[in-house]
Design a protein that fits this description.
The protein is an alpha+beta fold. 30% of the residues lie in helices and 34% in strands. A hairpin with a 2-residue loop joins strand 5 and strand 6. It starts with a helix and ends in a 7-residue tail after the last strand. About 4% of the residues have low confidence.
């Protein structure tokens, strides 16, 4: 009888330990969450130019914890009118109502089409503003002459006396223009011819 009681007690401890470990492993890690989200983004947005996870936050503790991840999905980055979506994801998948992707940039407008200055938060907005700003007639003329021109964009910590300036380079063959835009004021600062390397 004594051996049977010890055996049953050990069996109960083993079952509790197995259930505890399986709960911990079924919860998943941040690495699992990022991998699963990356795979889902690739399946859902196969034609996107960029699929980039921006953040991953653990919500809650213990067995009820989950991760809330957000990602950038961008299309048409080599055109004058790119689009940017923000996608949110729960891992492990929850029984919550799924959040729809939110379009942050699109329709070739910045700041939702509002007039006046605004913050150019995203590279896609900088590309659009570089040719839609009222003072950007030189870039518009360049794009009319070279409709296949491609943009590249970077955020400069400082440029001349301004800080946080988007530099949008438009190139077509051996020709190019650089447009400089204030991120915080959302306006064009200057347009310069871009020196391009000559072919050997």
């Amino acid at each position: 009888m004594r051996k049977e009681a010890v055996f049953i007690l050990l069996l109960i401890i083993a079952v509790v330990a197995v259930l505890s470990l399986s709960n911990r492993f079924s919860q998943g890690t941040e690495t699992d969450a990022r991998k699963f989200f990356s795979e889902d983004l690739a399946r859902t947005y196969p034609d996107a130019d960029v699929r980039e996870i921006l953040s991953s936050v653990q919500v809650g503790e213990g067995s009820s914890a989950y991760y809330l991840l957000s990602a950038r999905v961008s299309y048409n980055l080599s055109t004058p009118c790119p689009t940017r979506l923000e996608v949110a994801y729960y891992y492990p998948p929850q029984s919550f109502v799924a959040r729809r992707p939110q379009q942050l940039v699109g329709s070739c407008r910045v700041c939702g089409g509002a007039s006046g200055s605004c913050v150019l938060s995203y590279a896609e907005e900088a590309i659009i503003a570089s040719h839609t700003d009222p003072a950007a007639s030189q870039v518009r003329d360049f794009l009319s002459l070279y409709p296949d021109a491609k943009p590249s964009v970077s955020l400069l910590p400082s440029w001349q006396s301004a800080s946080n300036v988007w530099q949008v380079n438009w190139t077509a063959g051996s020709y190019g223009l650089s447009a400089y835009l204030s991120q915080g004021e959302g306006r064009l600062l200057e347009i310069q011819p871009m020196p391009l390397p000559s072919s050997p």
